[in-house]
Amino acid sequence: MNQEQFGKMVSATIEAPMLKKNFQKQKAFDIKKQKKKIEKNKIANAASDSEFNWNTELILGRDEDEYTVMYHRCGLCALGKQEHHEELIPYMCKMDYETITMMGGVLKRKGTIATGADCCDFYVCKKGSKWDK
After folding, report:
1. Is 131 within a domain?
2. Which of these, 104, 97, 102, lies nearest to 122 by C-alpha position?
């Protein structure tokens, strides 16, 4: 399978009705859900130091219509490196934009671990909110 085919496979996967339905029902712009996610991240980050797990930090925004997520470690990057397929990981990162869109948001970021940044920085705001500029 070449890179173009892999990219098409990733796009087709994210369009699967089961995945779309799951992302569309998530309440990403609910302050209680955001605070709960912060607590879940603390537990998950403490539970495993494996390079194949993510180390995630959610930072609350100025209101519930925005937040930031920082991935300090990426399990997919570690797996891609182990399997000598680092060139495929950016295709997986592309899914982030599509899943955030399905949740009613807009994703903006400066970099990803897969492209050489120290972390994956996700600024997420609700589509159509005052932060969506």
Report:
1. no
2. 97
